Amino acid sequence: MVMHGSVFWGNAAIFLVLFLLRASTVDLSTREAELRAAVATTIWIVHLEMKQAADIMGIDKSTLGKQLQGVEGYPISLTRLFRLPLTFWLAFTPVLISLVIRKHLAEVGEELTLSRRA
Description:
Elements: H1 5-23, H2 28-45, H3 50-57, H4 61-69, H5 78-81, H6 86-117
């Protein structure tokens, strides 16, 4: 199936919004760790060096490293992520969707386990 660019990005935006809304209702530290891992994985997938990604984002490599490690006071900025090239976003979307699907599958598994015990 060939998806037109605007449809693809519209769907990607919907998934991102749903992820962020859903993430606000669960353990925030777990969601943040998963999001940091997704960003780091995607940077690796698109063959960007950390310094290169940091330069594009307008921060230094040390700051990006702290953000990806979850150091207190160093949140990942969506505004800065938007500066990354299209190749990042094309790779990030399926990684993000996979993250959301795994989370929901885990919740369904927990609900099934709880309902069997009841």
